[in-house]
Amino acid sequence: MAEAFTLAAVSDSAKCAAERVMARCDALAAISETPGQLTRVYLSAEHLQANQVVGEWMEAAGMRVWQDSVGNICGRYEGLDASAPAILLGSHLDSVRNAGRYDGPLGVLTALEVVAHLHHNGIRLPMAVEIVGFCDEEGTRFGITLLGSRGLTGTWPADWLERQDAQGISVAQAMQNSGLEPLKIGASQRAVSDFCAYLELHIEQGPCLQTADVPLGVVTAINGARRLNCEFTGHAGHAGTVPMGQRQDALTAAAEWTLAIESITTATGRNLVATVGTLECLPGAVNVIPGQVKLSLDVRGPRDDDLSALLETLLAKGRDIAARRGLTFAAEQFYGISATECNAGLQHRLSQSVLHLQGQAMSLPSGAGHDAIAMAECWPVGMLFVRCKDGISHHPDESVTTGDVAYAVQAYINTVLSFAEGHL
Questions:
Q1: Which domain holds residue 287?
Q2: What's the distance, CA 289 to chain centroid?
Q3: DSSP 8-state class, residue 7
Q4: Cβ(151)–Cβ(188) under 8 Å?
Q5: Are residues 198 and 117 in the same domain?
Q6: CA 79 from chain center: how many Å?
Q7: 104-134 pLDDT per residue, tens
Q8: Residue 244 C-beta-side C-alpha neighbours within 13 Å
Q9: Does 187 lie in the same domain as 104?
Q10: pTM for the whole thing?
């Protein structure tokens, strides 16, 4: 059972802000290409409409607003020193298909409430505060993830403009159709000196905060990942004539390895996770001993060294199982991304704000990717997680409470106000 903590009261203004955030999440959810569902993809009419709406809300909060050359909607609230590196707050406005309404937009809209608080109270920080609503984090339309944030970092691969969607429309064509100029994508890049920090608020997309019975958590790192195609090869045989002790059954080897993956990873701890997500059994007949099994392995963790060590242990176990059973084992990695550490100073700022509100500052890694991955290549990043019901995300049942959002807004405001005492 989670230890009980007494939550501090949030301000009435934070409660009103949370109600506004929830209403605006509903308003953005109605901007969708699919009736009765939420689908909003890069450079669709719905994406551009959402940008316009969010831009109007930015202006109402006292910000100068623009849409950059890749389609991010951006706003700036000036500080006392226009030359000082700004604080950047953001998340994404695109969605997966048949999505929930909080993954992405919640981070943009709570950031808006931070700036609205500054504007309403006439507060100017030593530096400006900027907000970005990233245009494409999910990669739903073109299969390109972090497209918006890589616009700011200037790390678009050369072939991205040629990538096509399911209708054969290229990124370059979609940009032209939306009034953007493909040859000017570099104009979205920001100098490293433009920002002192990037902060992102996001729903957890997991059950840890709910299990701990707290509304907020501070992210330590975004998990790195390795994905592999693996294969056990034995010998197919007649299901009725080959004795049990003389079989080279690839499926039983794969099953033993799958259970070993579960037990080894669980025992390792360190927030590491491993998943066998696909399995193909050949020849796939009810009366034939499986001679070959192809399966996938997805391993994730917040520290690259721990991740590499676990992966080598799991692959060694696969080889041992195959050798003992008279089979062969092969594995080939087809995807890998390094873990992204959140800045220690920003974690401290966020933790202090959370600690004040909920009596403990729970730290946890993110198992899902975020725009902060790209942003960390140029700037210190920090992330704040908000509890979501049952950890459900990328689904219409995605849910947060107004009360939790009020705590999130209050913590976000307090964290940004901490910069009044100086830079990172």
A1: 224-337
A2: 42
A3: P
A4: yes
A5: yes
A6: 29
A7: 999 999 999 999 999 999 999 999 999 999 9
A8: 1
A9: yes
A10: 0.89
